[in-house]
Amino acid sequence: MRYALVGNQNCGKTTLFNQLTGSNQHVGNFPGVTVDSKIGEIRGEKGDCVVDLPGIYSIRPYTNEELVTRRFILKEHPDGIINIVDATNIERNLYLTLQLLEMHIPMVLALNMMDEVRGNGGTIDIGKMEEELGIPVIAISAVQNEGIEDLIHAIKDVSQRRIYPKVMDFCEKGAVHRCIHAVSHQVEDHAERIGISPRFAATKIVEGDHNIIENLHLSENELELMEHSIVEMERDSEMDRNAALADMRYTFIERVCGQAVIKCRESREHRRSVRIDSVLTGKYLAIPSFLLIMLLVFWLTFGVIGTFLSDLLSMGIDALSAVVEQALIEYGINPVVKSLVIDGIFTGVGSVLSFLPIIVVLFFFLSILEDSGYMARIAFVMDRPLRKIGLSGKSFVAMLIGFGCSVPAVMTTRTLSSERDKKMTIMLIPFISCSAKIPIYALFAAAFFQKYKALVMMGLYVLGILVGILCAVILNKTTFHGKPMPFVMELPNYRFPSTKSVLLLMWDKAKDFVQRAFTVIFIATLLIWFLQSFDSRLNVVTDSGDSLLAMIGKLIAPVFIPLGFGDWRAATALISGFSAKEAVVSTLGVLTGTSMSSLGKTLEEIFTPLAAASYLVFTLLYTPCVAAVATIKREMGSLWKTVGIVCMQCGVAWLAAFVLYNAGKLLL
Fold this sequence. Notes:
By secondary structure, the chain is mainly α. Helix content is about 65%, strand content about 5%. It folds into three domains: about 1-160, 3-Layer(aba) Sandwich (Rossmann fold); about 175-260, Orthogonal Bundle (Helix Hairpins), CATH 1.10.287.1770; about 285-480 and about 500-665, no CATH class. The chain has a six-stranded mixed beta sheet with strand order 2-3-1-4-5-7, with helices on both faces. It has a two-stranded antiparallel sheet with strand order 6-8. The longest helix has about 45 residues, at about 285-330.
């Protein structure tokens, strides 16, 4: 059996998916976390799976999330639907429920957050709600893992026995009732031919859903008859067609809730959230508060906890490397093989792995901010300033994800309603500093700006955002004319972060980093070692300046002379960074032949502090890794547009580094 999990955003849908499947999927508090449908086998139910669909408020195809959800239900024909509803905000959530009932598919309603309803003095008559809606209703708490077994049994029962919703008519009389019934009868044969409910088809026709109308292949005469019924409904109800349908649904919802729901008093969580929001989302304090919070996160990560743990791991890797090197010498192994193991693998991959604690600590703090509900506030706060540069707060959601990795950030732009907003956001995401660049920042900050590490890190992140804003202003005035789509967002209450969710995100990031270290970075390191160890005749070189790599590096090094780092090793590291940004550090380690603990000292021979700052700016802004570029190509749907974006980013990076270096020379 295959079930569709459908619900509004921020109703606990992904948490329920984790409870049902045991999936290590991250839970977020803002729209866009679930972009594609995700599938997982239900624990204890071999062969039965549930598909986590994007959070939506309506079945109407306004957004990409709604398109994904509707397409899956109509084309994939799931055996049943689990409709999860936030019981603390039941009236709004039931609007989607009524639309799902019209689709006439076996369905169970999961009333989530019932623990909060009870805790705040509310109650819901489950039996009465089942009677009014005509489907099984199960009280659950996804966070507390309550009612999950009952929910599994209920959805299996209705799906296996093909028990369809008993209620689909939400109005007993009146203009809307007459119109929907008239259209349903006229469209019945066409709807059954394409495998959808006549009632659902009728409401979509009334709403003017062109996609459904085209698929039904209605004749001109049939369309005219239906339009006559719709116009008559508008005249009799004194409302336009969409307002009349919405009024019909909300009238039914009010009647159901009036009979089955005793509303909660204002919850402690909501009162607490209002007090906190008076500061964190206040007109004058919101952005300063955000900057202070992020500065604290960077200080703890790069100045206290993360650096300490990173130094310990680096010492351990160096000690292991020394033991292995001594063992290889005593064994009398070929010097080339010893060089491969020590200079290639240990120096290259080991130098990257030493930054694992920093990345884990950073995402520990970011996941706390996200899981508490604060990141959703930042999208809300940033909506107004982003509108001035032609974007919406929803674009900032993608940019926030870009702080972790550009690949999922670019994929998240699928949630943007307009192609204009999507393409513009994709072009700006690479300017947001991803976590893969952290090893580069940490290395150079420790080597050249020891006293100001946290400020340098914070400055790089802010600079990336500012450059992105500047490019957005230019693009908005030139390539992407027009206004961004409206951004509507429901702010969840502040909640204490889930320990499980925080640990899962830390594990995912650590696992992803280690996998990259032993796949892409490992291959890149071996390639760099080979090019650095042999000349054009494949003879082993004693001086890396005579190697194949030096030949390549010296060809492109002149491009970077105006930026202050014309050394071929610096240029070569930038090339390897195209495979994965962490490879910049490993390449510098291989090329200089030094371990992580002494690499900082060696870099002082290649860079001046000003040149190091210029190098950091260039690595911040130049094109992301090959995986991100491939994702951009897939989302943009054009190779040439992707090449243009890459060239633009490299050009902006070169120009920014040039301005910084030459301005610094004038001032210093």
